[in-house]
Amino acid sequence: MQMTPVLAAVIDLDVTYFFQLALFLGLVVVLNQLAFKPLLALFERRRGETLEREQRATEGIREADVLLESYRQEIGQATAAGMDLRNSLRDAALAEQAAHVLKVRTEATNWKEQELALHRAELDAARAEAENEVESLATAIVKTLTAGKGAS
User: Fold this and answer.
1) This prediction's pTM
2) Rounded Cα–Cα distance for residues 30 and 34 (Å)
């Protein structure tokens, strides 16, 4: 048995097909005017606004970066100025301290020299007094010894 292919018409063209096509095209034209064009215009407007906002945001980020770099430079300059001021104040304080130490050291040396001179003077006076006493004692001893020899 042999099979013969049966070809059947898939689309049956009649007047209703053209009527449905006309309705579909009319609907497309009406929807294009009432829905698609306004929606596309809305989408395009929103896209434009989005691009504009993105551009403003990018410009804002650039300005923020410029300000940040400026602030960093100012902070660096202020830090350097503060370090310079601190160093100059420290140097001035060290110089003042050195001058004060020198003054106190000089005063202490002068006081020491005065005290040494005073003690030397007292020592010399005591030595002179001791020498006088030694001489008078020596004279008294010699007299006593000579008086004792003369009596014996």
Assistant:
1) 0.46
2) 6
